[in-house]
């Protein structure tokens, strides 16, 4: 369960209050504001705040005094144009802030995106909760033989059982010892009044990388789409993709036109190299092209043919 | 006049509309939202949007589920503590967006602050208005003899007259020729239907650095305070300080507790070097200290004594 | 002439000295180190320092203890792979520093690339030289009628003559008045010993945007390629493209494999949107596709057909 | 042991080669280039590459054509001036690249410094070595009772023994199970040819935060000093301070004048708030000041008095 009843009450209270503002408002995003959208077994994504919407992109691109928008069709055209030609600065004029709960190994991938603001829960200062990630059976994948950075079919039978058993038991064990080293009882009292307890900043290092942490994470619309284009991609590790997928939905609620352009130009398209483009032109002209005469290596040829939906 | 009547109407319309939001609202800042706060002879600062307030800083520092704030006195204490110990990340959780009209030579100083988002009016694409900066008599300062990067007393009499005359006439002249090269009449029609007109991206280079440009500029609370600590400082050039001073007022409306801490720890304080601190300790212990035995150069000694309010 | 004889002597002296180092060395780049590579009428690009080469990219990608490189063919394959899949971080491990002299209006475009380090010559502190940009006749382009941000054919005859005349005379005039306001004679003595002279930080605002400034500019290999992909592109203004073209040559001397991949995947390729890719697939399958049934607007259809080398 | 004999051989080979360069060279840093400077039980810091030195700071500050340096005493004065007045951009003109091996919990603190370039060893792609951090007895500190983020006296006797026992056994256990889930034998062959082995990107999550990772980390001189001012500070966790201390030594070898200024103005000095400065002035004027009339809270008063070397 990602939330305690106290936390739920705090969130409900925030959701209940409304105030008037002169700022731009994104009504569909307001609907889910503060709500914990569940991800994985104990994680969540919560939208805490935002600034701007599709209209703010248009306004910045036009450096206008008023709203800047005209008809929706013109705004859509302008936003598509900006994305297609990588005019990224108007998208930096919108900002969104999330509260995210996520396993530490996911946090370590996520934090590599540097153009963002982060405040993480401090295990130097506080004690981490006993919450760790265990994959669902359908995500317990084998190592890919072909791609050192990929997954293969799902483990099954005895092997799967053994893995679940190890993951669970080790997670339980390291947490038990974490508390023992801290000299913390579950009731908050010291386990042993004679002992001092190891410093929190040291004891935490006994925890494993599937333990959950949480942070506030804030970024602008351009960097959000860049993050999503890498992390909602099929090559991303499933566990971070699960977060990205939920965030793509929040993007749709926030800036529907930017979301549309994002699907069309970022997630859905492809890039052709100079040689790849020359091959496509030759093929379109009806010329037969083979790998050997294409100028591409066998591997690059296969990649190109796959992206064009042709057998090799 | 910084605004045309059309622009005023657009702004009034934006100010008239209010919508409900679940987000944090800063009522004092809402009061001036969209308004053009005048700076210099034709410039302005307009707050277009914002996200968060003092409370968001506290919430991020505590990574809390609800508002995060307790009593005002506790929030003030926490914000002071964060600023004093340079824990800057919670201040990055608030964001503000300005629309600014400013002379190009001011824009060139301003843009050196890289951790911000900018959309500038494009003189490749559009034609600049005929608006240029002429200092008021009390700001027409002579070159400082002592400090190559500073100003001395104000010019007066014939010298001042001559400078005003040159600035005005040259500004008028380069704009007249800008329009002639563009082949633009003031009514929008070509001056000469036989001519093509020079490309806008070239013609603009005839304009002088006192011409006004404008941009949308967005940054977070931490970087805003860093900008203001450098640009509202006595060493900053007067013309950019004029903008910073107006923005300090918007900071006060937005995040009053952060504003208070900013005055106390950034604008109002001083830094002591290792040697400077040793001297202060000796002085406080009643020991006489002179420059020669202080370990400081004559110049550094004078700077230190001045900052401590003592004659050299 | 971009350089005085004193400056040339300083540069020759730097070029003459060699020292031993254990660091990676890029011999082809060493050949032109410190040299002023001319750009436009008074500008230049000088490579002042660099760190790393193709090998450093490979080493970082492999997080290896030694050099990291294997055979050239494997290194080439890895660098191509990294560029193609936008694994950009290994390219951030190389750094290059330039000294650039450029017109102010070009500097204003250039500075928008924020992930770089800059030290600009200060006109608050020092006096600018009398050097301004005048386009060569073949670059004196008319405003494009079709594209508000573009150029058309070159101006000729009387119109060209008049434009040259205006640009030259205004540039001369504003500089003469700059010196008069500064109360500076060309020999360094005051023009008029009775006058104080206007502060440099104010006088500079009378200069026009075609005056030259200069700066040290440093960036990493990834951000250099990003800069070049935008500024060596046909849509960039000619004057900044002239700098980018010279810098592409320095890239080739520095990191020949990255340069090759840059031409293949960045400058030479194209991007297909989701709809564009679907159209290409249909065309390759022999299906006739027309704009009306393509899902693209007329304008996007023309762009796609042009990029595929087909008439509309 | 931080290095295998293969790794040592690779490093020795790199150290043996010297090549001529026209670039600036820092001889004292060349002496330790590529060497593994040991930190903690299995970690190290290696300087892999650098660009510039004190002279490059001076050259950028003066935007000069040649070296830019004059006499050492003038260069020292300029560098001190730049640091004191927070003119940070000239320090960004120097760059340094490290190869660092460090426990994951240290890496998680370190990565919060965003203005740096990083390539980390990938546990999605490769298998981590069996190396984990165990504190030396003198660093096995108890939790501070006064400061939730601090350490107290060192644990001793039975409590210390028990903690060491838990840390070692859990570290051994999670690694054994990591290998079992991967289906990896220590000889590289599968443990069990019938099993597939869990994907590396999943198995790694069973490892604890004291396991070592490694990365290439590159930053500029300004950001290095900022990093060191926070991480070589007494408030930093001991384990990251151990790295910072070694890096301060490399700074001294690289840029001795900047290092001197860093000790004088960053590590050794203190900051006075507006109220604190007023109190110091009153004390220096011989006026008695007490906490109650000082305008400071009891806590801030104690902090100020401590920094001035006075009892409260």
List keywords for this structure.
homotetramer, 312 residues, alpha+beta, two-stranded antiparallel ribbon, 15% strand
The CATH level-2 architecture of the largest domain in chain A is identified as 2-Layer Sandwich
Integer tally of domains of chain A: 3
Number of helices of chain A: 13
Query: How many DSSP E strands of chain A?
Result: 9
CATH topology of the largest domain in chain A: Gyrase A, domain 2
Any idea what the shape of chain A is? Answer: flat
The helix-strand sequence of chain A is HEHEEHHEHEEEHHEHHHEHHH
The CATH class of the largest domain in chain A = Alpha Beta
Distance between the termini of chain A: 48 Å
Helicity range of chain A = 40-55%
Query: Could you state the oligomeric state of the chains shown?
Result: homotetramer
Task: Explain the overall architecture.
4 copies of one chain form a homotetramer. The mean pLDDT of chain A is 94. Chain A has 312 residues and is an alpha+beta fold. Chain A has helices at 5-16, 27-32, 54-62, 72-84, 104-110, 157-182, 200-203, 221-231, 238-254, 256-267, 274-284, 291-294, 298-307, and strands at 19-21, 37-39, 43-51, 95-103, 117-120, 141-143, 151-154, 212-220, 270-272. In chain A, the strands form 2 sheets. Chain A has a 5-stranded antiparallel beta sheet with strand order 2-3-4-8-5. A two-stranded antiparallel ribbon of chain A has the order 6-7. Chain A has 3 domains: 5-128 and 212-267, Gyrase A, domain 2 (2-Layer Sandwich), CATH 3.30.1360; 137-206, no CATH class; 274-307, no CATH class. The first copy, chain A, starts with a helix and ends in a 5-residue tail after the last helix. Chain B binds chain D through residues 77, 80, 84-86, 89, 112, 230, 235, 263-265, 267-277, 280-281, 283-284, 297, 300, 307-310, and chain D through 77, 80, 84-86, 89, 112, 230, 235, 263-265, 267-277, 280-281, 283-284, 297, 300, 307-310.
């Amino acid at each position: 369960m990602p939330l305690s009843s106290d936390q739920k009450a705090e969130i409900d209270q925030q959701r209940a209050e409304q105030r008037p503002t002169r700022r731009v408002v994104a009504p569909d995003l307001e609907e889910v504001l503060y709500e914990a959208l569940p991800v994985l077994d104990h994680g969540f994504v919560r939208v805490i705040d935002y600034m701007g919407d599709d209209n703010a992109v248009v306004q910045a691109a036009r450096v206008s005094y008023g709203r800047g928008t005209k008809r929706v069709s013109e705004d859509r055209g302008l936003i598509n144009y900006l994305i297609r030609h990588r005019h990224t600065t108007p998208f930096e004029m919108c900002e969104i802030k999330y509260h995210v709960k996520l396993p530490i190994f996911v946090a370590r991938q996520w934090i590599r995106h540097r153009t963002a603001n982060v405040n993480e829960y401090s295990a130097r200062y506080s004690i981490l909760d006993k919450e760790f990630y265990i994959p669902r059976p359908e995500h317990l994948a084998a190592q890919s033989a072909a791609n050192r950075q990929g997954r293969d079919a799902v483990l099954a039978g005895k092997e799967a059982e053994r893995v679940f058993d190890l993951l669970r038991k080790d997670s339980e064990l390291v947490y038990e010892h974490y508390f023992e080293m801290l000299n913390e009882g579950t009731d908050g009292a010291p386990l042993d009044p004679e002992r001092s307890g190891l410093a929190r900043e040291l004891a935490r290092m006994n925890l494993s990388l599937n333990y959950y942490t949480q942070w506030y994470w804030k970024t602008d619309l351009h960097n959000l789409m860049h993050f999503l284009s890498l992390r909602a991609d099929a090559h991303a590790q499933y566990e971070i993709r699960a977060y990205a997928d939920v965030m793509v939905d929040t993007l749709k609620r926030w800036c529907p036109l930017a979301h549309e352009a994002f699907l069309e130009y970022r997630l859905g398209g492809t890039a052709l190299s100079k040689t790849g483009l020359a091959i496509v032109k030759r093929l379109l002209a009806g010329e037969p092209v083979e790998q050997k005469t294409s100028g591409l290596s066998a591997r690059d040829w296969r990649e190109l043919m796959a992206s064009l939906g042709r057998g090799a």
